[in-house]
Write a structure and sequence with these properties.
5-stranded antiparallel beta sheet, single chain
């Protein structure tokens, strides 16, 4: 019987849970990556509009192909940066806003510490079922009696 070679898949990394100090320390790297992601995504969106305009103007196919090639290169770079964030244990929520979540545990349940570009520290959190609109101050977590601390 012939055996078919299969590509070995990497096991899924174990989900990382951050304490608040760990998340704040990781923010130095995360902010740099999120800034690059935001820049690339903004450029990708501009190129999409340029391709659309070029197609409406019936520009030469070679010109459009060049723009599509640039878009593909930016997409590969963006994917690598998102993978880097994932490797840190952070979840990208919005590439344009530079919005990321740091998984954490509080009182035996998972929560998300929330940060976006322009904020100087991780000062917000929300439930996993909530989102940006449900953000609350981390000070609220720190003031409550707790079984498992974020500190």
């Amino acid at each position: 019987m012939a055996m078919v070679a299969t590509k070995q898949r990497k096991p899924a990394p174990e989900r990382k849970f951050f304490t608040l100090p760990e998340a704040r320390r990781a923010l130095v790297l995360v902010e740099k990556i999120a800034t690059d992601i935001q820049r690339l995504e903004t450029t990708r969106r501009r190129i999409i509009h340029e391709i659309d305009a070029a197609q409406r103007q019936d520009l030469p196919a070679e010109q459009i192909a060049g723009m599509e090639h640039d878009f593909d290169i930016l997409t590969e770079q963006l994917t690598a940066l998102v993978d880097e964030l994932t490797g840190v244990g952070v979840e990208l929520k919005d590439p344009v806003r530079g919005l990321v979540d740091f998984p954490a545990m509080h009182e035996d349940r998972e929560i998300l510490l929330c940060w976006q570009l322009g904020e100087t520290s991780i000062d917000y959190w929300h439930e996993t079922s909530g989102g940006f609109a449900g953000r609350r101050m981390v000070a609220d977590l720190e003031c409550r009696p707790k079984r498992q601390s974020l500190r």
